[in-house]
Write a structure and sequence with these properties.
Blueprint: H1 5-19, H2 25-37, E1 44-51, E2 56-59, E3 64-65, E4 77-78, H3 84-91, E5 95-97, H4 110-114, E6 119-127, E7 130-139, H5 146-189, H6 205-217, E8 224-227, H7 234-243, E9 252-256, H8 265-270, E10 271-272, E11 284-285, H9 287-290, E12 295-299, H10 306-318, E13 320-322, E14 329-331, E15 335-340, H11 344-349, H12 355-361, E16 364-367, H13 378-393, E17 399-400, H14 402-410, H15 416-430, E18 435-436, H16 438-447, H17 455-462, H18 464-475, H19 486-490, H20 494-504
Parallel strand pairs: 8-15, 8-16, 9-12, 12-15, 17-18
Antiparallel strand pairs: 1-2, 1-3, 1-7, 2-4, 5-6, 6-7, 10-11, 13-14
């Protein structure tokens, strides 16, 4: 075929028109291959992508022609010494071999000879002095006018380089858009958990001490382990730490460890590439990648199975990971906060928690006390939650009598603040604008008692103060004052204790 300037121009124009509307690699590659076949015969066509950082190559798309199944996009591989691809990339020039049998010592020639190929032509895909990769044409019979064809294919390689770069840019922008959509979905899914630091109400000395500690450690990179019973507000405090840190402009990513199944653990935390496993129809960014520059919060870390703890430890040590199905290591910058309601030391002794992981998580441990240990906060919490829920529901707030509040203070709140919020919400719904008495509280507790909970147990919870004072009186043998007296042990003035004893009808002499 005579390659006049007009014929060359038409070929380049047709290639451009064929690829301009393609939005994935496979379709673009097949469009190029089909158009080239209309103008000359080739037996194999392939395009390599080159990564200068890792000195590796990968196929842009599955090869076309003889034995294409051996040439696929499944993985990258090191740039082999003595290969045709290496010669093209190192020199930046085309490599033309009209007789492959004369160069059988080259590393990439053997498989081509086995496929009954006789000649090959490889060209650099160069754009703005940057080599994107190589394009290879191979033949069972040496082409006629091979050197004239070389000039034509050099022009074709420039056109293909533009199309390949556009496709790579399109994929990169698509991935950025996909990541932004995922971040948006994550933020929207957590928008029902608003964080307002001013709404965290407390007056007890134990919580004041905790918040003072948080102020000191929040703006450091130290890992923090929050411990305490369910419903005490560990997640809220984790958000508080993040918002007081220099990372507050980036994401706070919460991960519920008990919800991580073994099969999805790595995909959820580290992400996966398209086709990594059955059902992986698209690339996915993991929780750690979302938390880059921010904070990842591992809630209920004590529930994570031991076999998964080792994988987590590796990421915490190296600050790097690979997505599932990908060999590329990704370095990440994150701050880790974890929480548990379990006794981790007991779990370590039982072989249920790795000691080395505990040391990674436990630079600072903050124990969040249950409500029964900070009785001073109960009334102010009830009033604050009532005000917030009433405003949210646009209903008048119920009013608690002093007797009702006194009973709420004596209740042990096994579900802590979470239980209190549920209780107050019910009161706002059922008793909006009404007065709530001590008897109303008792009735409500009876309605919401567990099926296995007896009335005696409910009364015991309501009378927790009496039981506690009686226990201390027994221990102190009825003594009220002095260094070894009940008032000292209870942490209250003797006059206050005497008032309580009179109100509860307790005679301290009965315990001497």
């Amino acid at each position: 075929m005579h390659w006049s300037p007009e014929v060359r121009y038409k070929l380049l124009l047709k290639i451009n028109n064929a690829v301009i509307a393609q939005t994935n690699r496979g379709d673009l590659f097949q469009a190029v291959a089909k158009e080239l076949r209309n103008h000359f015969t080739h037996d194999r066509l392939s395009i390599n992508l080159y990564d200068p950082q890792t000195q590796s190559i990968s196929y842009f798309a599955n090869a076309d022609g003889i034995n294409p199944s051996a040439i696929s996009t499944r993985s990258s591989r090191p740039l082999a010494n003595g290969s045709i691809t290496q010669m093209v990339i190192r020199s930046g020039q085309a490599v033309i071999i009209d007789d492959l049998n004369s160069y059988s010592d080259l590393s990439s020639i053997g498989s081509m000879i086995q496929a009954d190929l006789k000649s090959t032509m490889a060209f650099p895909l160069t754009l703005r002095d940057r080599i994107l990769g190589t394009i290879h044409f191979s033949f069972r019979r040496k082409p006629d006018h091979i050197y004239e064809l070389t000039e034509v294919l050099a022009d074709v390689s420039t056109q293909v380089a533009i199309a390949v770069e556009n496709m790579l840019s399109y994929e990169h922008l698509s991935q950025i858009n996909s990541n932004l959509i995922r971040e948006k979905r994550y933020l929207l899914s957590n928008s029902n958990q608003p964080y307002l630091q001013d709404s965290f109400i407390y007056t007890s000395s134990s919580m004041i001490e905790i918040m003072n500690l948080i102020d000191r450690v929040a703006d450091t990179e130290a890992s923090i382990l929050l411990t305490g019973e369910t419903g005490t507000g560990k997640g809220y405090l984790a958000r508080c730490i993040h918002n007081l840190s220099s990372r507050k402009e980036n994401l706070f990513v919460k991960t519920n460890c008990p919800a991580l199944s073994a099969s999805l653990f790595e995909s959820e935390l580290f992400g996966h590439v398209k086709g990594a496993f059955t059902g992986a129809a698209a690339e996915r960014i993991g929780r750690f990648e979302l938390a880059h520059g921010g904070t990842i919060f591992l809630d209920e870390i004590g529930e994570l199975p031991v076999n998964l703890q080792a994988k987590l430890l590796h990421v915490l040590q190296d600050r790097s990971f690979e997505r599932v199905g990908d060999s590329r290591t990704r370095n990440i910058d994150f701050r880790i906060i974890s929480a548990t309601n379990k006794d981790i030391n007991a779990s370590i002794k039982a072989g249920q928690f790795r000691q080395d992981l505990f040391y990674r998580l436990n630079i600072f441990t903050i124990r969040v006390p249950p409500l029964r240990e900070r009785v001073e906060d109960i009334e102010i919490l009830v009033n604050n939650i009532t005000s917030n829920e009433s405003h949210e529901m646009n209903r008048p707030p119920p009013k608690y009598t002093s007797g009702a509040l006194d009973l709420l203070k004596r209740y042990s709140w096994p579900g802590n603040v979470r239980e209190m919020k549920n209780f107050v919400k019910r009161m706002v719904i059922l008793r909006a604008g009404e007065e709530i008495t001590k008897d109303d509280i008792k009735t409500e507790f009876q309605k919401t008692a567990r099926p296995d909970e007896t009335e005696d147990e409910i009364n015991t919870l309501a009378d927790a103060e009496r039981a506690h004072i009686e226990k201390v009186l027994i221990q102190c043998r009825g003594a009220l004052g002095g260094d070894n007296g009940s008032a000292k042990l209870l942490g209250i003035p003797r006059s206050t204790l005497q008032y309580r004893l009179k109100k509860l009808g307790i005679n301290p002499r009965d315990y001497s």
